[in-house]
Amino acid sequence: MTAFVSEFTGTAMLILLGNGVVANVVLPKTKGHGGGWIVITFGWAMAVFTAVFISAESSGAHLNPAITIALAAGGKFSWASVPVYIAAQFAGAMAGAFVVWLAYRQHFEKGTDAGAMIAVFCTGPAIKSFANNLITEIIGTFVLLFAALHIKSKADYLGSVDALPVALVVLAIGLSLGGPTGYAINPARDLGPRIMHALLPIPGKQHSDWAYAWVPVVGPLIGALLAIFVYRYSG
Fold it and tell me: What's the structural domain count of the chain?
Protein backbone atom coordinates (compact mmCIF):
# COMPACT_ATOMS: atom_id res chain seq x y z
CA MET A 1 0.00 0.00 0.00
CA THR A 2 1.05 3.60 -0.51
CA ALA A 3 1.38 5.72 2.62
CA PHE A 4 -1.89 7.51 1.83
CA VAL A 5 -3.85 4.29 1.34
CA SER A 6 -2.26 2.78 4.45
CA GLU A 7 -3.13 5.72 6.69
CA PHE A 8 -6.61 5.96 5.16
CA THR A 9 -7.30 2.25 5.64
CA GLY A 10 -5.83 2.09 9.12
CA THR A 11 -7.71 5.14 10.36
CA ALA A 12 -10.95 3.94 8.79
CA MET A 13 -10.56 0.60 10.55
CA LEU A 14 -9.74 2.37 13.81
CA ILE A 15 -12.96 4.37 13.67
CA LEU A 16 -15.08 1.52 12.34
CA LEU A 17 -14.18 -0.73 15.26
CA GLY A 18 -13.76 1.99 17.90
CA ASN A 19 -16.92 3.94 17.19
CA GLY A 20 -18.61 0.65 16.39
CA VAL A 21 -18.20 -0.61 19.94
CA VAL A 22 -19.69 2.64 21.23
CA ALA A 23 -22.68 2.18 18.93
CA ASN A 24 -23.11 -1.40 20.15
CA VAL A 25 -23.19 -0.21 23.77
CA VAL A 26 -25.27 2.98 23.62
CA LEU A 27 -27.77 2.50 20.78
CA PRO A 28 -31.10 0.75 21.47
CA LYS A 29 -31.91 -2.87 20.60
CA THR A 30 -28.32 -3.93 19.94
CA LYS A 31 -26.83 -7.17 21.24
CA GLY A 32 -24.34 -5.19 23.32
CA HIS A 33 -26.69 -2.50 24.65
CA GLY A 34 -25.70 -1.37 28.13
CA GLY A 35 -22.31 -3.08 28.01
CA GLY A 36 -20.64 -0.17 29.80
CA TRP A 37 -17.30 1.57 29.93
CA ILE A 38 -15.15 -1.56 30.22
CA VAL A 39 -16.56 -2.92 26.96
CA ILE A 40 -15.92 0.42 25.24
CA THR A 41 -12.32 0.68 26.43
CA PHE A 42 -11.52 -2.90 25.43
CA GLY A 43 -13.21 -2.36 22.07
CA TRP A 44 -11.13 0.74 21.40
CA ALA A 45 -7.93 -1.07 22.41
CA MET A 46 -8.69 -3.86 19.94
CA ALA A 47 -9.52 -1.26 17.31
CA VAL A 48 -6.05 0.22 17.78
CA PHE A 49 -4.49 -3.24 17.66
CA THR A 50 -6.19 -4.02 14.35
CA ALA A 51 -5.50 -0.63 12.76
CA VAL A 52 -1.81 -0.60 13.71
CA PHE A 53 -1.35 -4.19 12.56
CA ILE A 54 -2.83 -3.34 9.17
CA SER A 55 -0.94 -0.12 8.49
CA ALA A 56 2.38 -0.30 10.35
CA GLU A 57 4.44 -1.79 7.55
CA SER A 58 3.33 0.60 4.81
CA SER A 59 3.02 3.96 6.56
CA GLY A 60 4.27 3.58 10.12
CA ALA A 61 0.71 3.52 11.54
CA HIS A 62 0.48 7.12 12.70
CA LEU A 63 -3.33 7.16 12.33
CA ASN A 64 -3.36 10.43 14.24
CA PRO A 65 -2.49 13.97 13.04
CA ALA A 66 -1.09 14.88 16.46
CA ILE A 67 1.42 12.04 16.23
CA THR A 68 2.34 12.90 12.65
CA ILE A 69 2.96 16.56 13.50
CA ALA A 70 4.87 15.74 16.69
CA LEU A 71 7.14 13.25 14.95
CA ALA A 72 7.88 15.83 12.24
CA ALA A 73 8.58 18.49 14.87
CA GLY A 74 10.94 16.07 16.60
CA GLY A 75 12.86 15.36 13.42
CA LYS A 76 11.60 11.77 13.15
CA PHE A 77 9.35 12.31 10.11
CA SER A 78 9.49 14.41 6.96
CA TRP A 79 7.42 17.61 6.99
CA ALA A 80 6.83 17.09 3.26
CA SER A 81 4.76 13.98 4.03
CA VAL A 82 2.68 15.59 6.77
CA PRO A 83 -0.15 16.93 4.53
CA VAL A 84 -0.58 13.56 2.81
CA TYR A 85 -0.77 11.71 6.12
CA ILE A 86 -3.22 14.17 7.70
CA ALA A 87 -5.46 14.17 4.63
CA ALA A 88 -5.54 10.36 4.69
CA GLN A 89 -6.26 10.26 8.41
CA PHE A 90 -9.21 12.65 8.23
CA ALA A 91 -10.61 10.99 5.12
CA GLY A 92 -10.26 7.58 6.76
CA ALA A 93 -11.92 8.75 9.95
CA MET A 94 -14.89 10.09 8.01
CA ALA A 95 -15.17 6.89 5.97
CA GLY A 96 -15.03 4.74 9.10
CA ALA A 97 -17.75 6.81 10.77
CA PHE A 98 -19.94 6.47 7.69
CA VAL A 99 -19.63 2.68 7.74
CA VAL A 100 -20.52 2.59 11.45
CA TRP A 101 -23.68 4.55 10.65
CA LEU A 102 -24.40 2.16 7.79
CA ALA A 103 -24.01 -0.89 10.01
CA TYR A 104 -26.19 0.54 12.81
CA ARG A 105 -28.63 2.52 10.69
CA GLN A 106 -31.73 0.73 11.95
CA HIS A 107 -30.67 1.30 15.54
CA PHE A 108 -30.13 5.01 14.94
CA GLU A 109 -33.65 5.15 13.52
CA LYS A 110 -35.07 3.58 16.69
CA GLY A 111 -33.08 5.85 19.00
CA THR A 112 -34.54 8.71 21.03
CA ASP A 113 -31.43 9.71 22.96
CA ALA A 114 -29.65 12.40 20.91
CA GLY A 115 -26.74 12.36 23.35
CA ALA A 116 -26.15 8.67 22.71
CA MET A 117 -26.28 9.26 18.96
CA ILE A 118 -23.56 11.88 18.98
CA ALA A 119 -21.49 9.78 21.40
CA VAL A 120 -21.18 7.15 18.67
CA PHE A 121 -19.32 9.68 16.52
CA CYS A 122 -17.29 11.96 18.78
CA THR A 123 -16.30 12.67 22.34
CA GLY A 124 -17.90 14.95 24.88
CA PRO A 125 -16.91 15.88 28.42
CA ALA A 126 -18.62 14.51 31.50
CA ILE A 127 -18.29 17.98 33.01
CA LYS A 128 -17.84 20.73 30.44
CA SER A 129 -14.93 22.96 31.37
CA PHE A 130 -12.79 23.87 28.40
CA ALA A 131 -9.64 24.45 30.44
CA ASN A 132 -9.91 21.21 32.41
CA ASN A 133 -11.05 19.21 29.40
CA LEU A 134 -8.07 20.54 27.42
CA ILE A 135 -5.67 19.48 30.20
CA THR A 136 -7.15 15.98 30.25
CA GLU A 137 -6.67 15.58 26.49
CA ILE A 138 -3.11 16.89 26.76
CA ILE A 139 -2.27 14.37 29.48
CA GLY A 140 -3.84 11.43 27.66
CA THR A 141 -2.08 12.14 24.38
CA PHE A 142 1.22 12.74 26.15
CA VAL A 143 0.97 9.27 27.68
CA LEU A 144 0.08 7.73 24.30
CA LEU A 145 3.05 9.07 22.37
CA PHE A 146 5.58 9.04 25.22
CA ALA A 147 4.85 5.37 25.90
CA ALA A 148 4.85 4.49 22.19
CA LEU A 149 8.22 6.14 21.69
CA HIS A 150 9.69 3.99 24.46
CA ILE A 151 8.32 0.66 23.25
CA LYS A 152 9.24 1.14 19.59
CA SER A 153 12.23 -0.52 17.99
CA LYS A 154 15.37 1.22 16.84
CA ALA A 155 13.72 2.38 13.60
CA ASP A 156 12.71 6.02 13.87
CA TYR A 157 9.06 5.76 13.00
CA LEU A 158 6.06 4.97 15.14
CA GLY A 159 4.84 2.05 13.09
CA SER A 160 7.77 -0.10 14.20
CA VAL A 161 6.02 -0.64 17.52
CA ASP A 162 4.27 -3.92 17.93
CA ALA A 163 0.49 -3.55 17.71
CA LEU A 164 -0.34 -5.21 21.03
CA PRO A 165 1.72 -2.93 23.32
CA VAL A 166 0.19 0.16 21.69
CA ALA A 167 -3.28 -1.32 22.18
CA LEU A 168 -2.53 -1.94 25.84
CA VAL A 169 -1.39 1.65 26.29
CA VAL A 170 -4.67 2.87 24.79
CA LEU A 171 -6.57 0.50 27.08
CA ALA A 172 -4.72 1.94 30.08
CA ILE A 173 -5.46 5.51 28.97
CA GLY A 174 -9.15 4.72 28.54
CA LEU A 175 -9.47 3.02 31.92
CA SER A 176 -7.42 5.55 33.85
CA LEU A 177 -7.88 8.89 32.06
CA GLY A 178 -10.93 8.44 29.84
CA GLY A 179 -13.59 9.45 32.33
CA PRO A 180 -13.50 13.27 32.04
CA THR A 181 -13.60 13.65 28.23
CA GLY A 182 -13.90 10.22 26.59
CA TYR A 183 -10.19 10.28 25.62
CA ALA A 184 -10.18 11.44 22.02
CA ILE A 185 -6.34 11.71 22.04
CA ASN A 186 -6.55 12.08 18.25
CA PRO A 187 -7.87 15.07 16.26
CA ALA A 188 -8.95 12.94 13.29
CA ARG A 189 -10.73 10.44 15.50
CA ASP A 190 -12.96 13.19 16.87
CA LEU A 191 -13.31 15.83 14.16
CA GLY A 192 -13.78 13.50 11.19
CA PRO A 193 -16.71 11.60 12.73
CA ARG A 194 -18.13 14.84 14.16
CA ILE A 195 -18.36 16.18 10.62
CA MET A 196 -20.14 12.97 9.58
CA HIS A 197 -22.58 13.35 12.47
CA ALA A 198 -23.44 16.78 11.13
CA LEU A 199 -23.85 15.52 7.55
CA LEU A 200 -25.63 12.19 7.93
CA PRO A 201 -29.46 11.95 7.94
CA ILE A 202 -29.86 10.73 11.52
CA PRO A 203 -33.42 11.13 12.84
CA GLY A 204 -33.66 13.11 16.07
CA LYS A 205 -30.01 14.03 16.26
CA GLN A 206 -28.87 17.09 18.20
CA HIS A 207 -26.33 19.72 17.16
CA SER A 208 -22.76 18.46 16.73
CA ASP A 209 -21.40 20.53 19.66
CA TRP A 210 -19.02 22.63 17.58
CA ALA A 211 -18.28 24.84 20.57
CA TYR A 212 -16.39 21.93 22.13
CA ALA A 213 -14.89 20.54 18.92
CA TRP A 214 -11.61 22.47 19.23
CA VAL A 215 -10.67 20.78 22.54
CA PRO A 216 -10.06 17.25 21.13
CA VAL A 217 -8.06 18.84 18.31
CA VAL A 218 -5.85 21.28 20.21
CA GLY A 219 -5.36 19.12 23.32
CA PRO A 220 -3.87 16.13 21.48
CA LEU A 221 -1.61 18.40 19.42
CA ILE A 222 -0.18 20.00 22.57
CA GLY A 223 0.14 16.65 24.35
CA ALA A 224 1.97 15.01 21.47
CA LEU A 225 4.36 17.93 21.06
CA LEU A 226 5.13 17.85 24.77
CA ALA A 227 5.76 14.10 24.58
CA ILE A 228 8.23 14.37 21.71
CA PHE A 229 10.00 17.28 23.48
CA VAL A 230 10.34 15.42 26.79
CA TYR A 231 11.41 12.22 25.04
CA ARG A 232 14.02 14.04 22.98
CA TYR A 233 15.57 15.96 25.85
CA SER A 234 15.18 13.52 28.75
CA GLY A 235 17.44 10.80 27.43
Answer: 1
